Amino acid sequence: MSEPQKIGPELIVSILRQAKKPLTTRELQQETQRLVPHCVSSNVVVLNLMRIRGTIKGRRAEDKNWIWWVEDKDEGK
After folding, report:
1. Is the pTM for the entire model greater than 0.85?
2. Mean pLDDT of the chain
3. Structural domains of the chain ordered from first start
């Protein structure tokens, strides 16, 4: 039996963990759309809510684009 498809915040965290590097908003949106074509979780509002809640990390890069990543519990200490 295959693993159930991830959606919403779980999908975002999964993509960021697999990337093993920060992704721009555009990269994250492209990967989300590739995996789940009708997923709305990659929009900027959802990403910022996840950042505020501490689910993911995010900041503006020097080129003024936002980049997003996750930290393992061990890395944050």
Report:
1. no
2. 85
3. 8-69 (1.10.10.10)
DSSP per position, the chain: -PPPPP-HHHHHHHHHHHH-S-EEHHHHHHHHHHHSTT--TTSHHHHHHHHHHTSSEEEE-TTS-EEEE---TTTT-
Distance CA 32, CA 4 (A): 16
pLDDT in tens, 36-47: 887 776 688 889
Whether pLDDT at 50 is above 80: yes
Residue 39 dihedral angles phi and psi, to the nearest 5° = -80, 130
How many other C-beta atoms lie within 10 A of the C-beta of residue 62?
A: 5
| Contact by Cβ (8 Å): 20, 27 | no
